[in-house]
Amino acid sequence: MDDALRRALGGLSLLYALVFLVACLLHAGVVLGPLRQPVTVPAVVVESLCCAAMLAGAYGALSARPWAWDGLIYTHAGALSGVLLGILAVAFVPGAPAGTGLVWYHGTIAAFLAAGLAAAFYVSRVRR
Q: Rounded to two decimals, what is the model's pTM?
């Protein structure tokens, strides 16, 4: 079971990295079809870091590195903290765009990252 969950979380980490990359491009001013966001440099920085973290976690998990479980915990926690920072920015920063799509995105990705973090914590406890 550990192996299947590790591979699943690794694959999901790749998907999350892609989501963060798209969000980064949108906040950098790139228009992707009907999706557009105003240029927000702090969001670009945070989403770039979240993307890099998720890629590192995916690498460790999919290549079965000895640090894979710790890597999944750290990368999910780091990306989740970045998403929570985005939620706070949308809620409290004056002039921050607070569209429904942005609120939906932050809430959804936060829920998925929290679930992945919980799964990685669970397996790390079971493996001891």
A: 0.89
